[in-house]
Amino acid sequence: MKMTFYGQFVAGEDQESIKPLVHKNQAFGVGAVLDYSVEEDLTQEEAEKKEMESCVSEAEKDGPGADHREKKYKAHRQFGDRRGGVISARTYFYADEAKCDNQMETFIKCIKASGGASVDGFSAIKLTALGRPQFLLQFSEVLVQWRRFFNFLADQQGKSEMFLTAEMFILQESLTKLGVGPRDDIENWFTGEKLGLSGTIDLLDWNSLINDTTRISNLLMIPNLETGQLEPLLKTFTEEEEKQMKRMLQRVDLLANHALENGVRLMVDAEQTYFQPAISRLTLEMQRKFNREKPTIFNTYQCYLKEAYNNVTVDIELSRREGWYFGAKLVRGAYMYQERARAEEIGYEDPINPDYEATNRMYHNRPYVRRSVSPLCVPRMNDMGLSPSENKVYFGQLLGMCDQISFPLGQAGFPVYKYVPYGPVNEVIPYLSRRAQENRGFMKGSQRERSLLWKELKRRLLAGQILYKPVY
Protein backbone atom coordinates (compact mmCIF):
# COMPACT_ATOMS: atom_id res chain seq x y z
CA MET A 1 0.00 0.00 0.00
CA LYS A 2 2.91 2.36 0.65
CA MET A 3 3.77 2.22 -3.04
CA THR A 4 0.21 2.92 -4.18
CA PHE A 5 -2.72 4.62 -2.45
CA TYR A 6 -0.96 5.33 0.87
CA GLY A 7 2.08 6.71 -0.96
CA GLN A 8 -0.12 9.03 -3.01
CA PHE A 9 -2.07 10.64 -0.17
CA VAL A 10 0.00 10.11 3.01
CA ALA A 11 3.49 11.50 3.59
CA GLY A 12 4.79 8.84 5.99
CA GLU A 13 4.28 7.08 9.30
CA ASP A 14 5.80 9.62 11.70
CA GLN A 15 7.37 13.06 11.93
CA GLU A 16 10.80 11.78 10.91
CA SER A 17 9.72 9.80 7.86
CA ILE A 18 7.80 12.73 6.36
CA LYS A 19 10.78 15.12 6.38
CA PRO A 20 12.15 14.13 2.92
CA LEU A 21 8.81 14.86 1.24
CA VAL A 22 8.33 18.11 3.17
CA HIS A 23 11.84 19.30 2.23
CA LYS A 24 11.40 18.28 -1.41
CA ASN A 25 8.15 20.24 -1.64
CA GLN A 26 9.82 23.23 0.01
CA ALA A 27 12.43 23.21 -2.75
CA PHE A 28 9.57 23.90 -5.17
CA GLY A 29 8.14 26.66 -2.99
CA VAL A 30 5.39 24.50 -1.51
CA GLY A 31 4.93 24.53 2.26
CA ALA A 32 3.22 22.03 4.56
CA VAL A 33 0.22 21.91 6.85
CA LEU A 34 0.95 18.83 8.95
CA ASP A 35 -1.92 16.62 10.05
CA TYR A 36 -1.67 13.39 12.04
CA SER A 37 -4.43 11.52 10.22
CA VAL A 38 -5.13 8.61 12.54
CA GLU A 39 -8.89 8.18 12.86
CA GLU A 40 -11.11 6.06 15.05
CA ASP A 41 -12.77 3.26 13.12
CA LEU A 42 -16.28 3.10 14.62
CA THR A 43 -19.43 1.39 13.45
CA GLN A 44 -22.45 3.62 12.81
CA GLU A 45 -24.12 2.31 15.97
CA GLU A 46 -21.03 3.07 18.08
CA ALA A 47 -20.77 6.58 16.62
CA GLU A 48 -24.45 7.34 17.29
CA LYS A 49 -24.16 6.09 20.89
CA LYS A 50 -21.09 8.23 21.57
CA GLU A 51 -22.68 11.31 20.03
CA MET A 52 -25.89 11.07 22.05
CA GLU A 53 -23.98 10.50 25.28
CA SER A 54 -21.69 13.46 24.67
CA CYS A 55 -24.26 15.96 23.35
CA VAL A 56 -27.06 15.53 25.88
CA SER A 57 -26.63 17.12 29.31
CA GLU A 58 -27.66 15.53 32.57
CA ALA A 59 -30.45 18.11 32.94
CA GLU A 60 -31.88 17.08 29.58
CA LYS A 61 -31.68 13.40 30.49
CA ASP A 62 -33.42 13.87 33.84
CA GLY A 63 -36.43 15.93 32.85
CA PRO A 64 -38.42 17.81 30.23
CA GLY A 65 -36.88 21.18 31.19
CA ALA A 66 -35.11 21.48 27.87
CA ASP A 67 -38.24 21.60 25.75
CA HIS A 68 -37.59 25.26 24.90
CA ARG A 69 -34.26 24.35 23.29
CA GLU A 70 -34.11 24.90 19.54
CA LYS A 71 -34.20 21.61 17.66
CA LYS A 72 -31.29 22.57 15.41
CA TYR A 73 -29.00 22.75 18.45
CA LYS A 74 -30.08 19.48 20.02
CA ALA A 75 -28.62 16.06 19.31
CA HIS A 76 -30.68 13.74 17.08
CA ARG A 77 -29.81 10.07 16.95
CA GLN A 78 -30.55 9.67 13.23
CA PHE A 79 -27.73 12.16 12.58
CA GLY A 80 -25.52 11.01 15.43
CA ASP A 81 -22.93 9.57 13.08
CA ARG A 82 -21.49 12.88 11.84
CA ARG A 83 -19.46 11.04 9.20
CA GLY A 84 -22.58 10.47 7.09
CA GLY A 85 -22.28 12.14 3.70
CA VAL A 86 -18.90 13.64 4.63
CA ILE A 87 -15.84 12.47 2.72
CA SER A 88 -13.45 15.42 2.84
CA ALA A 89 -13.29 16.13 6.58
CA ARG A 90 -12.25 14.13 9.61
CA THR A 91 -14.76 13.52 12.41
CA TYR A 92 -14.01 13.23 16.13
CA PHE A 93 -16.28 11.57 18.66
CA TYR A 94 -16.03 12.30 22.37
CA ALA A 95 -15.06 9.41 24.65
CA ASP A 96 -13.66 11.00 27.80
CA GLU A 97 -11.39 13.81 29.01
CA ALA A 98 -8.27 11.64 28.85
CA LYS A 99 -8.81 11.08 25.13
CA CYS A 100 -9.20 14.83 24.60
CA ASP A 101 -5.88 15.34 26.40
CA ASN A 102 -4.25 12.76 24.12
CA GLN A 103 -5.62 14.48 21.02
CA MET A 104 -4.37 17.82 22.33
CA GLU A 105 -0.88 16.31 22.73
CA THR A 106 -1.05 15.09 19.13
CA PHE A 107 -1.92 18.61 17.97
CA ILE A 108 1.02 19.97 20.01
CA LYS A 109 3.37 17.52 18.27
CA CYS A 110 2.05 18.70 14.87
CA ILE A 111 2.58 22.33 15.87
CA LYS A 112 6.14 21.66 16.99
CA ALA A 113 6.87 19.63 13.86
CA SER A 114 5.47 22.44 11.68
CA GLY A 115 7.65 24.95 13.50
CA GLY A 116 10.71 22.77 13.01
CA ALA A 117 10.02 22.07 9.34
CA SER A 118 9.74 25.69 8.15
CA VAL A 119 9.69 29.29 9.32
CA ASP A 120 6.12 29.89 8.17
CA GLY A 121 4.25 26.66 8.84
CA PHE A 122 0.56 26.06 9.44
CA SER A 123 -1.19 23.58 11.68
CA ALA A 124 -4.91 22.76 11.85
CA ILE A 125 -7.11 21.76 14.79
CA LYS A 126 -10.75 20.79 15.35
CA LEU A 127 -12.54 21.88 18.51
CA THR A 128 -14.64 18.70 18.63
CA ALA A 129 -11.36 16.85 19.27
CA LEU A 130 -10.70 18.92 22.39
CA GLY A 131 -13.80 18.53 24.50
CA ARG A 132 -17.36 17.40 24.93
CA PRO A 133 -19.45 18.76 22.04
CA GLN A 134 -22.42 19.42 24.34
CA PHE A 135 -20.84 22.79 25.17
CA LEU A 136 -20.49 23.74 21.49
CA LEU A 137 -24.17 22.99 20.87
CA GLN A 138 -25.32 24.99 23.90
CA PHE A 139 -23.00 27.94 23.34
CA SER A 140 -24.02 28.06 19.66
CA GLU A 141 -27.69 28.29 20.61
CA VAL A 142 -26.99 31.08 23.10
CA LEU A 143 -25.03 33.07 20.52
CA VAL A 144 -27.70 32.66 17.84
CA GLN A 145 -30.45 33.82 20.22
CA TRP A 146 -28.43 36.88 21.22
CA ARG A 147 -27.78 37.65 17.56
CA ARG A 148 -31.51 37.60 16.85
CA PHE A 149 -32.09 39.83 19.84
CA PHE A 150 -29.61 42.43 18.63
CA ASN A 151 -30.99 42.25 15.10
CA PHE A 152 -34.40 42.99 16.63
CA LEU A 153 -32.97 46.01 18.46
CA ALA A 154 -31.31 47.26 15.28
CA ASP A 155 -34.62 46.96 13.41
CA GLN A 156 -36.52 48.77 16.16
CA GLN A 157 -34.02 51.59 16.51
CA GLY A 158 -35.03 53.16 13.22
CA LYS A 159 -38.75 52.94 14.01
CA SER A 160 -38.94 54.84 17.28
CA GLU A 161 -36.68 56.82 19.58
CA MET A 162 -38.54 55.35 22.55
CA PHE A 163 -38.23 51.70 21.61
CA LEU A 164 -36.34 50.78 24.81
CA THR A 165 -39.12 49.45 26.98
CA ALA A 166 -39.09 48.83 30.72
CA GLU A 167 -38.24 45.22 29.95
CA MET A 168 -35.13 46.38 28.04
CA PHE A 169 -33.94 48.39 31.04
CA ILE A 170 -34.45 45.35 33.27
CA LEU A 171 -32.37 43.35 30.80
CA GLN A 172 -29.60 45.95 30.96
CA GLU A 173 -29.60 45.64 34.76
CA SER A 174 -29.40 41.86 34.48
CA LEU A 175 -26.39 42.09 32.14
CA THR A 176 -24.66 44.52 34.51
CA LYS A 177 -25.17 42.17 37.45
CA LEU A 178 -23.91 39.26 35.37
CA GLY A 179 -20.65 41.17 34.95
CA VAL A 180 -20.30 40.91 31.18
CA GLY A 181 -19.14 44.53 30.92
CA PRO A 182 -19.31 48.07 32.34
CA ARG A 183 -22.74 49.68 32.45
CA ASP A 184 -21.86 52.29 29.82
CA ASP A 185 -20.75 49.56 27.38
CA ILE A 186 -23.92 47.58 27.98
CA GLU A 187 -26.08 50.65 27.28
CA ASN A 188 -24.11 51.18 24.07
CA TRP A 189 -24.98 47.63 22.94
CA PHE A 190 -28.64 48.67 23.01
CA THR A 191 -28.43 52.21 21.63
CA GLY A 192 -24.94 53.02 20.36
CA GLU A 193 -23.11 52.71 17.09
CA LYS A 194 -21.98 49.16 17.86
CA LEU A 195 -25.57 47.93 17.84
CA GLY A 196 -25.78 44.87 15.62
CA LEU A 197 -22.08 44.95 14.66
CA SER A 198 -20.80 41.88 16.42
CA GLY A 199 -24.21 40.23 16.38
CA THR A 200 -23.91 39.26 20.02
CA ILE A 201 -22.60 40.50 23.33
CA ASP A 202 -18.95 40.40 24.34
CA LEU A 203 -19.43 37.84 27.06
CA LEU A 204 -15.94 38.01 28.57
CA ASP A 205 -12.41 38.33 27.29
CA TRP A 206 -10.46 35.16 26.53
CA ASN A 207 -8.39 35.26 29.73
CA SER A 208 -11.57 35.38 31.79
CA LEU A 209 -13.10 32.49 29.86
CA ILE A 210 -10.19 30.17 30.69
CA ASN A 211 -9.90 31.35 34.30
CA ASP A 212 -10.75 28.62 36.81
CA THR A 213 -12.98 30.98 38.80
CA THR A 214 -15.34 31.67 35.89
CA ARG A 215 -18.40 29.46 35.71
CA ILE A 216 -19.10 28.95 32.02
CA SER A 217 -22.71 27.99 32.71
CA ASN A 218 -23.33 31.54 33.98
CA LEU A 219 -22.64 32.76 30.45
CA LEU A 220 -25.14 30.38 28.85
CA MET A 221 -27.97 32.86 29.41
CA ILE A 222 -30.53 34.02 26.85
CA PRO A 223 -32.69 37.19 26.80
CA ASN A 224 -36.46 37.04 27.27
CA LEU A 225 -38.04 40.09 25.62
CA GLU A 226 -41.39 39.49 27.31
CA THR A 227 -40.07 39.59 30.88
CA GLY A 228 -36.84 41.52 30.42
CA GLN A 229 -35.01 38.81 32.31
CA LEU A 230 -31.99 36.72 31.44
CA GLU A 231 -32.87 33.05 31.56
CA PRO A 232 -30.50 30.08 31.73
CA LEU A 233 -30.44 27.87 28.64
CA LEU A 234 -30.67 24.87 30.99
CA LYS A 235 -31.78 24.85 34.61
CA THR A 236 -28.74 23.04 35.98
CA PHE A 237 -25.23 21.99 35.05
CA THR A 238 -23.32 19.36 36.98
CA GLU A 239 -19.89 20.20 38.40
CA GLU A 240 -18.33 17.75 35.94
CA GLU A 241 -20.04 19.49 33.03
CA GLU A 242 -18.64 22.81 34.29
CA LYS A 243 -15.15 21.30 34.36
CA GLN A 244 -15.54 19.77 30.91
CA MET A 245 -16.49 23.13 29.37
CA LYS A 246 -13.55 24.84 31.09
CA ARG A 247 -11.06 22.14 30.06
CA MET A 248 -12.01 22.48 26.38
CA LEU A 249 -11.20 26.21 26.46
CA GLN A 250 -7.98 25.63 28.38
CA ARG A 251 -6.80 23.03 25.84
CA VAL A 252 -7.47 25.45 23.00
CA ASP A 253 -5.56 28.18 24.84
CA LEU A 254 -2.59 25.88 25.36
CA LEU A 255 -2.48 25.06 21.63
CA ALA A 256 -2.64 28.75 20.71
CA ASN A 257 0.28 29.50 23.03
CA HIS A 258 2.31 26.65 21.51
CA ALA A 259 1.57 28.00 18.03
CA LEU A 260 2.75 31.46 19.05
CA GLU A 261 5.93 30.11 20.66
CA ASN A 262 6.80 27.98 17.61
CA GLY A 263 6.02 30.61 14.99
CA VAL A 264 3.20 28.50 13.52
CA ARG A 265 -0.14 29.79 12.19
CA LEU A 266 -3.02 27.85 13.77
CA MET A 267 -6.11 27.19 11.66
CA VAL A 268 -9.31 26.29 13.50
CA ASP A 269 -11.31 24.08 11.13
CA ALA A 270 -14.99 24.70 10.47
CA GLU A 271 -17.53 22.03 11.42
CA GLN A 272 -21.31 21.52 11.23
CA THR A 273 -23.51 24.63 11.49
CA TYR A 274 -24.98 23.53 14.81
CA PHE A 275 -21.46 23.70 16.28
CA GLN A 276 -20.09 26.54 14.16
CA PRO A 277 -21.39 29.67 15.93
CA ALA A 278 -19.53 28.60 19.08
CA ILE A 279 -16.41 27.56 17.16
CA SER A 280 -16.26 30.85 15.25
CA ARG A 281 -16.88 32.94 18.36
CA LEU A 282 -14.22 31.18 20.42
CA THR A 283 -11.77 31.51 17.52
CA LEU A 284 -12.53 35.23 17.29
CA GLU A 285 -11.83 35.63 21.02
CA MET A 286 -8.47 33.91 20.48
CA GLN A 287 -7.72 36.24 17.58
CA ARG A 288 -8.35 39.22 19.84
CA LYS A 289 -5.65 37.93 22.18
CA PHE A 290 -3.09 36.26 19.92
CA ASN A 291 -3.32 38.29 16.67
CA ARG A 292 -2.07 41.60 18.06
CA GLU A 293 1.31 41.58 16.27
CA LYS A 294 0.65 39.21 13.36
CA PRO A 295 -2.03 36.77 12.16
CA THR A 296 -1.46 33.64 14.26
CA ILE A 297 -5.02 32.31 14.67
CA PHE A 298 -7.05 31.69 11.50
CA ASN A 299 -10.82 31.21 11.46
CA THR A 300 -12.41 29.05 8.75
CA TYR A 301 -15.35 30.23 6.64
CA GLN A 302 -17.46 27.77 4.66
CA CYS A 303 -18.33 29.78 1.58
CA TYR A 304 -21.40 27.76 0.61
CA LEU A 305 -23.28 28.96 3.72
CA LYS A 306 -25.96 31.63 3.35
CA GLU A 307 -24.45 33.67 6.18
CA ALA A 308 -20.80 33.32 5.08
CA TYR A 309 -20.44 36.75 3.50
CA ASN A 310 -22.00 38.57 6.45
CA ASN A 311 -19.83 36.65 8.91
CA VAL A 312 -16.62 37.53 7.07
CA THR A 313 -17.65 41.17 6.72
CA VAL A 314 -18.49 41.56 10.41
CA ASP A 315 -15.26 39.89 11.56
CA ILE A 316 -13.08 41.98 9.24
CA GLU A 317 -14.75 45.17 10.45
CA LEU A 318 -14.34 44.09 14.08
CA SER A 319 -10.62 43.44 13.58
CA ARG A 320 -10.20 46.89 12.02
CA ARG A 321 -11.99 48.63 14.86
CA GLU A 322 -10.14 46.77 17.59
CA GLY A 323 -6.72 46.74 15.94
CA TRP A 324 -5.87 43.06 15.58
CA TYR A 325 -4.89 41.00 12.52
CA PHE A 326 -7.66 39.18 10.68
CA GLY A 327 -6.78 35.65 9.54
CA ALA A 328 -9.11 33.42 7.50
CA LYS A 329 -9.14 30.13 5.67
CA LEU A 330 -11.77 30.10 2.91
CA VAL A 331 -13.20 26.70 1.94
CA ARG A 332 -16.23 25.54 0.03
CA GLY A 333 -17.45 23.44 2.95
CA ALA A 334 -17.50 19.70 3.58
CA TYR A 335 -20.95 19.02 5.04
CA MET A 336 -23.38 19.95 2.25
CA TYR A 337 -25.31 16.70 1.89
CA GLN A 338 -25.43 15.99 5.61
CA GLU A 339 -26.53 19.56 6.47
CA ARG A 340 -29.29 19.57 3.87
CA ALA A 341 -30.65 16.19 4.98
CA ARG A 342 -30.59 17.16 8.67
CA ALA A 343 -32.35 20.49 8.07
CA GLU A 344 -35.10 18.85 6.02
CA GLU A 345 -35.62 15.94 8.40
CA ILE A 346 -35.61 17.93 11.65
CA GLY A 347 -37.40 20.98 10.26
CA TYR A 348 -35.30 24.14 10.10
CA GLU A 349 -34.01 26.33 7.28
CA ASP A 350 -31.32 24.84 5.06
CA PRO A 351 -28.18 26.83 6.01
CA ILE A 352 -26.55 26.29 2.60
CA ASN A 353 -27.18 28.26 -0.58
CA PRO A 354 -29.48 26.33 -2.93
CA ASP A 355 -26.97 26.10 -5.78
CA TYR A 356 -23.68 27.36 -7.21
CA GLU A 357 -25.34 30.30 -8.99
CA ALA A 358 -27.00 31.50 -5.77
CA THR A 359 -23.64 31.36 -4.02
CA ASN A 360 -22.07 33.43 -6.79
CA ARG A 361 -24.84 36.03 -6.53
CA MET A 362 -24.21 36.35 -2.79
CA TYR A 363 -20.58 37.34 -3.46
CA HIS A 364 -21.24 39.44 -6.58
CA ASN A 365 -19.40 42.74 -6.30
CA ARG A 366 -18.50 41.94 -2.70
CA PRO A 367 -14.98 43.27 -2.08
CA TYR A 368 -14.02 41.10 0.88
CA VAL A 369 -14.68 37.61 -0.41
CA ARG A 370 -15.25 37.50 -4.14
CA ARG A 371 -11.65 38.27 -5.00
CA SER A 372 -10.35 35.60 -2.67
CA VAL A 373 -12.49 32.68 -3.81
CA SER A 374 -12.55 33.48 -7.52
CA PRO A 375 -10.63 31.18 -9.87
CA LEU A 376 -9.09 34.40 -11.21
CA CYS A 377 -7.48 35.06 -7.85
CA VAL A 378 -3.92 35.54 -9.16
CA PRO A 379 -4.78 38.24 -11.73
CA ARG A 380 -7.04 39.91 -9.19
CA MET A 381 -4.14 40.00 -6.74
CA ASN A 382 -2.12 41.75 -9.44
CA ASP A 383 -4.96 44.23 -10.01
CA MET A 384 -5.01 45.01 -6.29
CA GLY A 385 -1.25 45.40 -6.09
CA LEU A 386 -0.86 42.38 -3.81
CA SER A 387 2.61 40.95 -4.32
CA PRO A 388 3.11 37.21 -3.61
CA SER A 389 6.03 38.14 -1.35
CA GLU A 390 3.67 40.02 0.98
CA ASN A 391 2.24 36.67 2.16
CA LYS A 392 -1.28 38.03 2.54
CA VAL A 393 -3.05 35.46 0.35
CA TYR A 394 -2.24 31.74 0.59
CA PHE A 395 -3.26 28.79 -1.56
CA GLY A 396 -3.71 25.22 -0.35
CA GLN A 397 -4.49 21.75 -1.67
CA LEU A 398 -4.43 18.22 -0.33
CA LEU A 399 -1.30 16.12 -0.72
CA GLY A 400 -1.64 13.96 -3.82
CA MET A 401 -4.22 16.20 -5.47
CA CYS A 402 -4.04 19.23 -7.81
CA ASP A 403 -0.24 19.17 -8.14
CA GLN A 404 -0.63 20.93 -11.49
CA ILE A 405 -1.92 23.91 -9.48
CA SER A 406 0.28 23.75 -6.38
CA PHE A 407 3.73 23.51 -7.90
CA PRO A 408 3.40 26.16 -10.66
CA LEU A 409 2.08 28.57 -8.02
CA GLY A 410 5.01 27.74 -5.76
CA GLN A 411 7.50 28.19 -8.59
CA ALA A 412 5.90 31.55 -9.41
CA GLY A 413 6.59 32.72 -5.87
CA PHE A 414 3.05 32.51 -4.48
CA PRO A 415 2.59 31.17 -0.92
CA VAL A 416 1.14 27.70 -1.46
CA TYR A 417 0.77 24.79 0.95
CA LYS A 418 -0.01 21.10 0.84
CA TYR A 419 -2.19 19.60 3.55
CA VAL A 420 0.20 16.80 4.59
CA PRO A 421 -1.37 13.79 6.38
CA TYR A 422 0.83 11.25 8.13
CA GLY A 423 0.42 8.21 10.38
CA PRO A 424 0.88 4.40 10.53
CA VAL A 425 -0.53 2.51 7.56
CA ASN A 426 -3.05 0.45 9.51
CA GLU A 427 -4.33 3.50 11.44
CA VAL A 428 -4.96 5.84 8.51
CA ILE A 429 -7.29 3.44 6.68
CA PRO A 430 -10.40 5.57 7.52
CA TYR A 431 -8.66 8.63 6.06
CA LEU A 432 -7.63 6.72 2.94
CA SER A 433 -11.13 5.31 2.50
CA ARG A 434 -12.48 8.88 2.41
CA ARG A 435 -9.87 9.82 -0.18
CA ALA A 436 -10.97 6.79 -2.23
CA GLN A 437 -14.60 7.95 -2.11
CA GLU A 438 -13.58 11.50 -2.99
CA ASN A 439 -11.64 10.26 -5.99
CA ARG A 440 -14.27 7.95 -7.43
CA GLY A 441 -14.45 10.35 -10.35
CA PHE A 442 -10.68 10.52 -10.62
CA MET A 443 -10.52 8.46 -13.81
CA LYS A 444 -12.87 10.92 -15.51
CA GLY A 445 -10.14 13.52 -15.25
CA SER A 446 -7.26 11.17 -15.93
CA GLN A 447 -7.21 11.99 -19.66
CA ARG A 448 -6.52 15.65 -18.84
CA GLU A 449 -3.80 14.59 -16.38
CA ARG A 450 -2.14 12.39 -19.02
CA SER A 451 -2.32 15.24 -21.51
CA LEU A 452 -0.62 17.63 -19.09
CA LEU A 453 2.09 15.07 -18.26
CA TRP A 454 2.75 14.34 -21.93
CA LYS A 455 2.94 18.06 -22.68
CA GLU A 456 5.46 18.59 -19.88
CA LEU A 457 7.55 15.60 -20.95
CA LYS A 458 7.77 16.93 -24.54
CA ARG A 459 8.72 20.37 -23.21
CA ARG A 460 11.56 18.92 -21.17
CA LEU A 461 12.82 16.74 -24.04
CA LEU A 462 12.88 19.69 -26.43
CA ALA A 463 14.56 21.90 -23.82
CA GLY A 464 17.11 19.22 -22.90
CA GLN A 465 15.93 19.39 -19.29
CA ILE A 466 14.83 15.88 -18.32
CA LEU A 467 15.48 16.45 -14.62
CA TYR A 468 13.71 19.60 -13.48
CA LYS A 469 15.55 21.88 -11.05
CA PRO A 470 13.29 24.12 -8.95
CA VAL A 471 13.86 27.84 -9.25
CA TYR A 472 12.61 28.62 -5.75
Annotation, overall tally of beta strands? 9
Report the CATH topology name. Answer: TIM Barrel
Major sheet summary line: 7 strands, parallel
- Count of the separate structural domains: 1
Total of DSSP H or I helical runs spanning 4+ residues = 19
CATH architecture: Alpha-Beta Barrel
Radius of gyration, rounded?
24 Å
End-to-end Cα distance, whole Å, is: 32 Å
Apparent shape = globular
Question: Which ranges are low-confidence, i.e. pLDDT below 50, for 5 or more consecutive residues?
Answer: 159-164, 191-200, 367-374
What structural category do the secondary elements indicate? Answer: alpha/beta
CATH class: Alpha Beta
**Secondary-structure element order, N to C:** HHEHHHEHHHHEEHEHEHEHHHHEHEHH
Average of the residue pLDDT scores: 82
Strand content: 5-15%
Helical percent range?
A: 40-55%
Strand order of the largest sheet: 7-6-5-2-1-9-8
Enzyme class: oxidoreductase
Pathway: Amino-acid degradation; L-proline degradation into L-glutamate; L-glutamate from L-proline: step 1/2
Pfam families: Pro_dh
Cofactor: FAD
